[in-house]
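Revision sheet: structure tokens.
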Amino acid sequence: MYVIGAIALVLAIPTYFVMKDIAKNEAKVAAEVKEEKKEKMTGKDFLEIIKNPATWLIGFGIFSVYTCAVSMSYFTPYFTAVMGGTVAVSGFISLVRTYGLRLVGAPIGGWLSDRLHSVSKVLIVVYIIGIVSLLALVGFVNYLTAGVFIFITLVVGTIVYMGKGSYYALVSELEVPRERSASTIGVAAALGFSPDIFLFPLVGFLIDNYGNNGYKYLFILQMVVFALGILGSLYCLRYKKKLHEKKNSVVA
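Predicted:
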């Protein structure tokens, strides 16, 4: 807690100057927004958002990544209960995974999205690496050393934050109109973050009824979600291609 407090105080200084720069641009941004044509959302518009495939593709992209973020919270008890690791080491890994890797994964995800010119392609990379990592965790559990497990944990943590740093950009990739982007994200987030509702009770049920094998079933479930995520991202690429073809035909 002392370290966290000290870091917060140190970072408050550069944050003050960054926020000050943002404040200088507020008037300019406000003027630009004012120039745009403002129309209120209607019930018809909201129904169109719900019927739009992009809304559900974005939601499932969030869902696939966020499911793994929830699953990762069980890496800590898995390390102690199944692998016999110490609570101290497990807690340290959890801190690095939760707070350290987001500083690495998110920038990598953004950089890779720029390089590949596609968020969907980045998510496919995330899902494939996730499947391979979890497959190693499930298939070779009797041969895993603490060092290998820590490595897998760091890899999975990194890809989760790569996905978290990218999935909202699907709104731009799937060409959701700016005036509907907030509502689209709202609907997509309802699906995307739904694991908070059902996944914790489900995992609790698995562990209570199947003991340590419950973790194995959780990781298998996550691999299935990743596999479905790959299919969803491939459909995103196909949908994006259709949008471009439609746009080009209108121009022609």
